[in-house]
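Researcher: Good morning. I'm working through a list of sequences from a screen, and I'd like to move beyond sequence-only analysis. For each chain I'm collecting a predicted structure so we can compare shapes side by side. This is the next one on the list. No need for commentary yet; just the structure.
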Amino acid sequence: MTDWNQYYLHPYRTAVYSRRITSRRLVNLIKRFAPSEGPLVIAEIGGANSCFMDDIQREIKPAQYHIIDNNQLGLDLLSSRPDIGRTVYLHNQDVLSLSQDKELSADVAISVGLIEHFSADNLPRVIQAHFAILKPKGVTIITYPTPTFLYRIARSISELLNLWIFHDETPLKVDDVLAIIKPMGKLRYSGINWPIVFTQGIVVVEKSVPD
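Model: Good morning. Structure tokens for this chain:
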């Protein structure tokens, strides 16, 4: 299993480079696909010690930014921020229990490198949890590692050098993710983030409005 405490204290060596690229992609996708009426409520699932929140807040200026994670250390690393309880809210909660949270209603739900850490049986539940906290017509942006040739080479080298720390990470094929998502909402975008080397698929899905 991945040691998330160790990860938050000592991020993976390529993280500084890849986070900058991913952050730009997230900001651009939110600007392109998020509902446009008024300031947004954004939720980042699995976002303890978020490395994307500052860029999103600066560029998007959401009314609220919610961080949802069940790693207390990662949440504690954010707890001294002056905006906690004003525009930023921390939730110690498991993603699989989000369907029970009736208080949170977001315009945008984001997760970066989360869904690949769950079993195949739980994968649909994890993805569905993103929609559980969305308003109708809200969008979820999900990124996940996908086994391109570049990913396989980079991971093999990392494992050979004993640098790989994400021991429960299972790269997911784009078609498999899209097949799970198809009944859950309207696909607005699907692509691959190539420049980060450990390639990640990206999907943007709009929550369907009930009939």
